[in-house]
Design goal:
Blueprint: H1 2-6, H2 13-45, H3 50-99, H4 102-107, H5 110-152, H6 154-201, H7 203-208, H8 212-264, H9 270-311, H10 319-322, E1 333-340, E2 350-357, E3 362-366, H11 373-378, E4 388-393, E5 396-397, H12 403-409, E6 410-413, E7 422-423, H13 424-428, H14 437-446, H15 450-454, E8 463-464, H16 473-485, E9 491-495, H17 503-516, E10 521-525, H18 529-532, E11 537-542, E12 545-550, H19 552-558, H20 560-575
Parallel strand pairs: 3-10, 3-11, 6-9, 9-10
Antiparallel strand pairs: 1-2, 1-4, 4-5, 7-8, 11-12
The structure holds adenosine-5'-diphosphate and magnesium ion (MG).
Length: 576
């Protein structure tokens, strides 16, 4: 785990090395001080040599100032290194998430990804900062101070040597019971984030269903659980800290008692006893710091595991992200015996699909919800990869294209589409960053969005709120179509993209699209027969299988599913 983390210190290595080095210097200065102090008491204060007191006092101040400087720099470098690690990890995790295919995204919950990107990384970076200092300081100080204490008086050292195992036991018990509690705490945070995220993204639905009270209660309960878990973990600290203090004071009292007796018998000087007690203090604090850092290590470990889970998840087609064919020569699409199932699903969503879509044709997909229409079109720009069979675009298997090139030229307007906060212009530039205002307006005209955009006083600079909430469903759909048109693709896929647009406007979009680029291959998923009856070819999907292919007239003759859809819509029209 540590080795894997090391490479994320990139760019901050000098700080990673400097932090412990400076720490060692600080510890040396810290450990010298009690000895100088002891000498001052023995040879200066008790024997009345006042200039020795001054001289040693000066040394002590120098040592203290050095300790301060080294310690300060070490803390500074540690903070740099820790924050650097956090920055690198955050960036890498974020970049990694961007490489996930749709299948990869199905694996992690959004809220969990957010917790990993924020909480977990902050925790790791804080622990790294601490660890770089304390994990050097504590053992080093422990060894040095123990050595000095033993040098002063080996018999007196027995006192704390007896106390040490007791402390260790206390620490081990705390870790044994504390670590699982902290783990649980972390997953509770995950859950509360998931809850909050789900609630906030669906807040409108919550209100529409008057479920606020229910949601509040559920949240309150989780919040309470979180606090209980946190307190259980912290209560352990409440017990362990005074316990450690108790041992520490007991040791000091014992040292004073035995040392005092020794002194009275003339076996020890007052100054030595004094510095001995200071060393005991240093030793015991090192032990406690060691315990603290071990505790934090195990928390950070849980977080690191969660971070690496994302980093080590497979991004399905990492190899073709950068390499491969970059030009889609024609809009011809061939499905060669394609079957597909979602990762983790037992059953196939698509069975043995064979299709031949000539360049420049308009093909429509129709079928009941769940018949796998969306699934079928997602395969063409490789949002998911086929399970069996092969898809060829422009005569070349899609796996041989550079993914970005393929997706640029096979443009899809997703069923669940979204706009991003910004302006209309910034949203349109998603399609093509170089698009001029003129081109944007042209695209808006085709998608029948120009009117309502240009009617706003700000025009293209009109604000788009997060998720496009300040536009109606139909307006959003038309903006999404315009954004996709700006890519100037070879293949255009509409996944139910005009479902919220009225029929007259939809017809206008269809006419404008044909004028826009007659060579464009169009795949249109729609619910309304009126939207697709002029298509060159209509594919009827049923439960992941092709039930029929043909023109409107063909299918009306010999496809009973199509007939049924047609009749129900005719009736609906008559009734409406
Ligand atoms: N991300 C997914 N993970 C697992 N199963 C999915 C996923 N998306 C869709 N499915 C399943 O695939 C089938 C087809 O869904 P879909 O292609 O969305 O249908 P349609 O677009 O025709 O309404 C459904 O049974 C659905 O449950
Ligand atoms: Mg769908």
């Amino acid at each position: 785990m540590l080795r894997k983390t090391a490479k994320y210190y990139k760019g901050y290595m000098p700080f990673v090395i400097l932090t412990p080095l400076l720490m060692i210097l600080e510890v040396v200065a810290d450990v010298i001080i009690p000895t100088i102090m002891g000498n001052t008491i023995n040879d200066g204060v008790l024997s009345g040599q006042i200039d020795l007191v001054y001289k040693n006092g000066l040394y002590m101040i120098i040592a203290a100032v050095l300790a301060f400087i080294f310690g300060g720099f070490s803390t500074y470098c540690g903070a740099k290194a820790g924050q650097g690690l956090g920055k690198n990890l955050r960036l890498t995790v974020f970049e990694k998430i961007q490489t996930f295919s749709f299948a990869g995204l199905d694996k992690f919950e959004v809220s969990s990804l957010i917790t990993r990107l924020t909480n977990d990384i902050v925790l790791v970076s804080n622990v790294a900062r601490m660890a770089l200092r304390i994990s050097v300081r504590a053992p080093f100080m422990f060894v040095l101070a123990t050595f000095m204490a033993i040098r002063i008086n080996i018999r007196l050292s027995m006192v704390f040597l007896i106390a040490l195992p007791v402390m260790m036991l206390g620490i081990m018990l705390t870790m044994k019971f504390g670590i699982p509690k902290f783990r649980k705490f972390q997953s509770m945070i995950d859950r509360i984030n998931a809850r909050t995220q789900e609630n906030l993204t669906g807040i409108r639905v919550v209100k529409a269903f008057c479920r606020e009270k229910f949601e509040k209660e559920k949240f309150a309960e989780q919040n309470k659980n979180l606090v209980t878990t946190a307190l259980a973990a912290l209560n352990l600290m409440v017990i362990i800290m005074p316990f450690m203090m108790l041992i520490m004071y007991a040791v000091i009292v014992a040292v004073l008692w035995f040392g005092g007796n020794l002194m009275l018998q003339g076996g020890m000087e007052a100054g030595d006893l004094f510095s001995f007690i200071m060393y005991v203090g240093q030793i015991l604090t090192s032990v406690m710091n060691l315990a603290l850092i071990l505790m934090n290590f195990s928390r950070a470990r849980a977080s690191l595991e969660r971070i690496f889970e994302v980093l080590e998840a497979e991004s399905e087609f990492a190899e073709s992200i950068e390499q491969g064919v970059s030009e889609v020569v024609s809009g011809e699409i061939i499905f060669d015996n394609v079957s597909f199932k979602y990762p983790g699903n037992q059953h196939f969503s698509l069975h043995n699909i064979n299709l031949n879509i000539p360049s420049g044709s308009t093909v429509a997909l129709i079928g009941s919800t769940g018949s796998a229409k969306s699934t079928l079109v997602h395969l063409i720009p490789r949002l998911y990869d086929v399970f069996e069979g092969e898809i060829r675009v422009g005569g070349i298997p899609i796996k041989e294209y550079r993914v970005a090139s393929l997706r640029d030229q096979v443009a899809i307007v997703l069923q669940e589409n979204t706009l991003f906060s910004g302006t209309i212009r910034s949203n349109m530039k998603w399609g093509n960053p170089q698009a001029s205002d003129q081109e944007i307006i042209r695209a808006l005209e085709i998608s029948q969005a120009a009117e309502f955009v240009l009617n706003r006083p700000e025009g293209l600079a009109a604000k788009v709120e997060r998720g496009g909430v300040n536009f109606s469903g139909g307006q959003k759909q038309r903006l999404c179509i315009a954004r996709t048109l700006l890519k100037n693709p070879k293949i255009l896929i509409f996944d139910d993209s005009t479902s919220a647009v009225d029929m007259t406007t939809e017809a206008k979009i269809r006419i404008e699209l044909n004028k826009f680029n007659p060579d464009l291959t169009k795949i249109i998923i729609a619910q309304r027969i009126s939207s697709i009856q002029n298509a060159d070819k209509i594919i009827v999907l049923d439960n992941g299988k092709i039930s029929g292919i043909g023109t409107h007239a063909d299918l009306l003759q010999d496809n009973c599913i199509y007939q049924e859809i047609y009749e129900s819509q005719q009736k609906g029209m008559a009734a409406g």
